[in-house]
Amino acid sequence: QVMERELAGRRAAEAQRRYEATRDVVDELQRALLPIELPVVPHIDIAARYLTASRDQAAGGDWFDALPLDDGRMALVVGDVVGHGVAASAAMGQLRAALELALTTTTADLGSAVAQVDAFAAKKRPLRAATVGIVVIDPRTTDMEFCLCGHPPPVVVSADGNTRFLHQSGSAPLGVGHHHAVVRRSLKAGDV
User: Fewest CB within a 10 Å sphere: which of 88, 103, 121, 188?
Assistant: First the structure.
């Protein structure tokens, strides 16, 4: 009985070691898919930090991005692909690349970029029901437009410390057959 308990203990320790190694690989893979640095753009300060929810929850499908657009605007993106682990990280990488391509090649039209990515997500099962929030800001005018595809609304903090959620644009997640509305608003100097 003692030998059986020792053997069971060694097996449990080995299983724990393998689990932790796998979790670390997935976390490293996800971090490798995220931006290495954020762009520097006049009149707008950008900061981001990625944190895994907890050590027990595997990394996977969530991401952020900051993309300078050719016309001087900045696209800020957060998203989440359903699931965790290597498959979710791979799906996130595909969706992130498709979104970057659509945003940087679709001339000044957030609605068209989202429609392209939505069609892409509809064709690939791992991308269906992914959520994404995109805010495009023009730092010269403080005008912004945003589209929330199933993602929680961003919070705007004004210079005086008051907070407000951006109005939900009413869109469902990507790839599920819904139209994605774009909402336009203005920011004020000092808004975060």
Answer: 188
Backbone conformation region of residue 55, classed left if phi is above 0, alpha if psi is from -120 to 50, else beta: alpha
The residue behind tokens 């952020």 is 64
pTM of the model as a whole:
0.79
> How does strand 131-138 pair with strand 143-149?
antiparallel
Query: φ and ψ at 43, to 5 degrees?
Result: 70, 10
Do 174 and 119 touch, CB atoms closer than 8 A?
Answer: no
Residues pairing with 134 in the sheet? 77, 147
Which residues are bridge partners to 135 per DSSP? 76, 146
CA angle 183-189-192, nearest 5°? Answer: 65
Cα separation, 165 vs 155, in Å, equals 4
Q: What is the pLDDT of residues 15-70, one digit of tens each?
A: 877 776 666 666 665 566 666 677 887 888 888 777 665 555 556 678 888 999 98
> What confidence tens digit (pLDDT) does each residue in 102-128 have?
998 876 689 999 999 999 999 999 899
Q: Three-state SS for 1? A: coil
Q: Which two tokens stand for residue 27?
A: 């976390």
